[in-house]
Amino acid sequence: MQNMISEIARKHLGLETLEAQNSDSLDFKELSVWEIEAALKAAFQAGQKSTQGGVE
């Protein structure tokens, strides 16, 4: 599951890591609503697939 979350963060939100970097310029990012929407849709679809046995 963590791999899928990291992949969504990279692909849709442009985040290289979800680990805290202890730097405001690295830990905070301005995002558009359409980027957030795309990430939420991807997460929802991943969740649907996982309940159907498609993703672990």
Overview of this structure, please?
It is built from 3 helices and no strands. It has 56 residues and is mostly helical. The longest helix is centred in the last third of the chain and has 19 residues, at 33-51.
Briefly summarize what is shown.
With 56 residues, the protein is mainly alpha-helical.
Radius of gyration: 13 Å
Mean pLDDT: 92
Unreliable stretches (pLDDT < 50, length at least 5) are none
Terminal CA distance reads: 6 Å
Class from helix and strand fractions: mainly alpha
Q: Total strand count, please?
A: 0
Residue fraction in strands: under 5%
Q: Count of helices?
A: 3
Dominant shape: flat
Q: Please write the string of helix (H) and strand (E) elements.
A: HHH
Helix content: 55-70%
Main sheet overview:
none
Could you give the topology of this structure?
Blueprint: H1 2-13, H2 24-27, H3 33-51
Which short descriptors sum up this protein?
56 residues; mainly alpha; 62% helix
